[in-house]
Amino acid sequence: MLISAASPEIRSREQRRQLSDSSSEVLQTKHCLQEHLLGDEYEKSQPSRKEKSLGLLCHKFLARYPDYPSPSQKSYICLDEVTEELHVERRRIYDIVNVLESLHMVSRLARNRYVWHGRHNLPQTLQALKKVGEDNKYIQQIQMIKKREYEHEFDPDGERNEEMASSSGSSEQSEMSFVELPGVEFRAASVNGRKYKSLRVMSQKFVMLFLVSTPQIVSLEIAAKILIGEDQLEDLDKSKFKTKIRRLYDIANVLSSLKLIKKVHVTEERGRKPAFKWTGPEVLPNTQGRCMYTKLEATSTTSSPISESITSKEQCSKALFPSKGKQNFTRHSSLIKLVKSIENDRRKIQSAPTTPVKISASMYLFIIFLLGTSFPLFLSQMRSCIRYLSLPSSHRTCTYQSLPVFPNTIAQIPAITKHQLEGQAKTADEMQMKCALSSPEAVPTPEPSQQPALSQPLGVCPASHSSVSPVILPHPQSGVSYAIYLHPSQAHTVTTYSPGFMLQPLPCANVTGIKSNNSKVLNKITTEEGNTQRGLDEPPKSLAAEERPETKSETSQRCLKRSQALPETNLIKRRKSDEESLDTSLGEPTKNEKPPSNSSQTNHEMDNVQEERQNETKTVDQNMASCCEQCTKENIPEDEDKIKTKQDLPVAFAIPAPETFFPSGYLIPLTHCTHGNKAECSTKEKAGVCSLQHTAYSSPITGVIPMPASELKTVNIPAFHITPLNIMLSPNSIAAAPVLSNSCLNSSSTSSAPNPSSSALNFMLQHIGLIPAGVQIPANPVLQHVPISSQSENISHSSGSTNVQEGK
DNA sequence: CCGTCCCGCCAGTAT
DNA sequence: ATACTGGCGGGACGG
């Protein structure tokens, strides 16, 4: 950790070392304790199968790069180096890189070379994938498969092909396409002529399934069937199915490492089946025109873009990302150069005197959520705000980027938050940057390298929407900024903010029923809920019938070769069990030190806790005063608790509000956000931030899982002061106003309403330096209106006897 | 026994 | 031709 101050390289290296060390240490310890015979044998214990797992490897890989790399310092990935340093065969790295590429976390630059993007693109990617998934009618396909299986129970006939053909056939476009992101640089470089059947596409589709289905749980079986069904029109043979499953495991492993999914089991009449549950960031529903994505023909080798839908989407994306408008390139040096020059241009723009950073630096902080509003409107509102704030006209330069930014940023917050909570390490630069942002001296003369941090991640697109529109308005006179949470209906009123407009704290009474506002959403949920889970399974039967001999001559050879390999010792086996026991004894606090491999159980615990917490919070007093009181004492959600123990941080909190009420607006004075206070923010912040960011590697499952809340609750806290070191986490919350306060450090809220407000606030606060980077106000999963305990764990309603169990 | 999934062959591509 | 990619599936490991 101490080393974290050193160069990123050293740090990451160290990190890796620790990781492996700790894991091996643990193993050795166990051995000492339980190994009866074989004294030294275990020392040179060959890496057990598990130690070689793709998941672990992926963790190591990920540990080398920051989740949110600062745009200024692009990290490149050299496969040779990686393979050497991680001691793995190249082949394995490809597996990892391929799925990362599918998420646009990396993109291929050239042979042997990739660029690391980190999770910056994740929100857009997921949104795009979700959109595509919807377009592909995956939901229907899933249902069809289930239905068919059910029918097959009785008459294993073969009319399924027709159904399948009709369904998947209708979406021929889904053949072999790879979802691209308009904003992803160099993405095109990865699109070479090679057949695109790959893991990449598979990975994307797999993710789509999660994003599309309501309980976000997908069984391998269904995933495999759907993926197969799409590829070839139905020639399901058993071996193909098996292969598909195998691939899915590969993908699932890296997705798990990314903490986007976790393994669960779906139990039904047939018994329990492996499945995976989405644990990644909630993806906001797409709104027409907001989502920009392009599908590229897999086999396309041309340098010209092949977009199937050159519609408003396209245009929109082009308008938003003029410099990124390029679509698809083959790997060609000239093209790469072009890209570079474009990038340089962009950099120049970003380095312009005035940038979003400055905006925040000058304390003209504001966040506008125009959820449910059209983008153009958003833009205009943004402009008016900017105008009002008397920002230098030069801002218009960055308007291009900064404007679209917000929505996008918001979307990213959940991921960021989660990530940070998990204690992932950050690069020193990143930390510095954050500190700098809040420090007075840095503000006046923003360094080019710093600015991108704010503007770039934001540079991409889709607007999010929610029923609540939090707004943070600067109040020059008093030097205090206010965060205002407005009901959508009021949003316009505020955004057209005029100098004379004075925001006033509103009494709790002045609330609006959120439920009714979200009725649409809720309805959707309830209707979708329950039909997503699969029903039966018995693919082999039908598949076997069609099985065709596809044997390869070389198979026999392989067998021989493999048989030569010496079987591993029993030692390894034993170790496994030892490892298990030890892990359990480790307890939560040490989680961050644990090796990534096994954490399902931990997760399980967590979920339980969360449930408890939810119940707990439910009972929390509904009125403000008492709420605050309580907050300070108890009701500290598990998550926060963990964070506290893990990072020694002040806990965040959210104040629960009456379920049926939603404050139509309230103000949160951001006292420290004034011009003169930057210094204090920065100093305190620095300490906080830095310490936070140095958190050691944490186990994959240790992260905070967004809790589903059944109701939206918010609080009206007119006069809280936000202090740098205080964080407020509203675990589930959304609208739960992210309120920070020294006196009120608690949390409890259980709100859950599609409202990125907390995210946005987090983001802003973090960038302003009010909140340590490692902390955040958890954003709330959007459509998770499922009854408290049910979340996605309870799929029972859907297929009656389906049931999900956590862990392996 | 069976769910996982490591391993590495080897075909297809890029240089 | 050589090196890089990555589809693929046998069969070993772990529970």
Automatic annotation (TrEMBL):
Single GO MF descriptor: RNA polymerase II cis-regulatory region sequence-specific DNA binding
InterPro entries: E2F, E2F_WHTH_DNA-bd_dom, WH-like_DNA-bd_sf, WH_DNA-bd_sf
Compositionally biased residues, Low complexity: 164-173, 789-801
Localization in the cell: Nucleus
Main localization of the protein described in the UniProt heading: nucleus
Pfam families in the record: WHD_E2F_TDP
GO cellular component: RNA polymerase II transcription regulator complex
Bias (Basic and acidic residues) ranges: 10-19, 152-163, 535-555, 604-619
The organism's place on the tree of life at top rank: Eukaryota
Disordered: annotated span: 1-25, 152-173, 439-461, 526-621, 789-808
Biological processes, Gene Ontology terms: negative regulation of DNA-templated transcription; positive regulation of macromolecule metabolic process; positive regulation of nucleobase-containing compound metabolic process; sprouting angiogenesis
UniProt-listed Gene3D superfamilies: Winged helix-like DNA-binding domain superfamily/Winged helix DNA-binding domain
Domain E2F/DP family winged-helix DNA-binding residues, every copy: 49-118, 194-280
Keywords annotated in UniProt: Activator, Cell cycle, DNA-binding, Nucleus, Repressor, Transcription, Transcription regulation
Record family assignment: Belongs to the E2F/DP family.
Name of the protein in its database record: Transcription factor E2F8
Species of the source: Lonchura striata (white-rumped munia)
Gene: E2F8
